[in-house]
DNA sequence: ATAAAAACGATAACCATTCTCAGTTTAAAA
DNA sequence: TTTTAAACTGAGAATGGTTATCGTTTTTAT
């Protein structure tokens, strides 16, 4: 997977964007933190560890550029900040997430769940689908387990007091 | 449908929120502009026509309150503003939208498209689904037609010049 | 009527993001 | 290589949607 960076570099070069240390460090950070849904601020702080002189504006500019190059996806969970995900190589342009309303963690779900739905939309609404986002909000298995545990210990306590 | 307002009023009263003219005017505006995906600013300007003395902060406060009461849904299309949709009565808590990347209009699509997908998610990921959002980004039928028309006239022009 | 609690309008504060600008770096041409 | 123009950068100001503050007004219960 080491040539993933190389491929991104090549892509920049082909479109006559310059290969700066700041951009390289940013890509590096994104690669090292896949699945983490980093905000621009997050990326900024992480890049600063490698390249302390970098400015926040440059991080924003680089993320915007990578988004246009379709290297990262800019996504929004409605919490007031944009998050930037490295796109899986060869992956279609989709976003399927499970957002836990208890602990806030965001998990991914498999692609292709929506192929059928997409067909229906294209046909019934004459809408040419280029991209989609599907986000489920609910309670993840970890929080369900936690809640169950709390319930049980509350029950035990109630037995003692009664 | 006139008692829709009444029901919302009742709901406010039951939860001991006060029934102020500002809140009433805001609900009225939302009812008169369903399907429009109004931003807070939009609502503010429309309410101002009925009640010119209202403040922007009050509109935000009211929309926030209505969102908590599950009367409106606060949604985000990634364009930097939150939009507020009156929830259909009896409708499940879902958001299905078609966002046109050409003209920016947002259309609704029918509910129930995802019942099957939701089941899979609950089973395979042990994730208790409370809500979901599905947004397709693409080109609406209007813009498809417009593009086709432009193409044709360009062709005609090219025939003349050649 | 009166007092406590809620709600209000105006506007300041906040905060994520974008813009500006003067100085620096890059990469292609000389 | 050196040169040069365009691209890129960091710092911080500006922007814009949203939230917080505060003194005043309105509502509801006593």
UniProtKB/TrEMBL annotation, chains A, B:
It comes from the Bacteria. Belongs to the Fur family. Its cofactor is Mn(2+); Fe(2+); Zn(2+). Pfam families: FUR (PF01475). One of its GO terms (biological process) is regulation of secondary metabolite biosynthetic process. This is Transcriptional regulator. Keywords: DNA-binding, Iron, Metal-binding, Repressor, Transcription, Transcription regulation, Zinc. Fe cation binds at residue 132. PANTHER family: FERRIC UPTAKE REGULATION PROTEIN, ZINC UPTAKE REGULATION PROTEIN. GO terms for molecular function: DNA-binding transcription factor activity; transcription cis-regulatory region binding; zinc ion binding. Zn(2+) binds at residues 100, 103, 140, 143. Binds 1 Mn(2+) or Fe(2+) ion per subunit.
């Amino acid at each position: 997977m080491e040539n993933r960076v190389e491929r991104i570099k090549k892509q920049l070069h082909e479109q006559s964007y310059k290969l700066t240390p700041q951009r390289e460090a940013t890509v590096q950070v994104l690669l090292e933190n896949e699945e983490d849904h980093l905000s621009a601020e997050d990326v900024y702080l992480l890049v600063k560890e490698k390249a302390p002189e970098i400015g926040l504006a440059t991080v924003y500019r680089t993320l915007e550029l990578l988004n246009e190059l379709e290297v990262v996806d800019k996504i929004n969970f409605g919490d007031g900040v944009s998050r930037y995900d490295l796109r899986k190589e060869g992956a279609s342009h989709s976003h399927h997430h499970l957002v836990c309303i208890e602990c806030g963690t965001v998990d991914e779900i498999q692609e292709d769940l929506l192929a059928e739905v997409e067909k229906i939309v294209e046909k019934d609404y004459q809408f040419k689908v280029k991209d989609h986002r599907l986000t489920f909000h609910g309670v993840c298995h970890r929080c369900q387990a936690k809640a169950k545990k709390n319930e049980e210990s509350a029950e035990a306590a109630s037995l003692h007091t009664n």
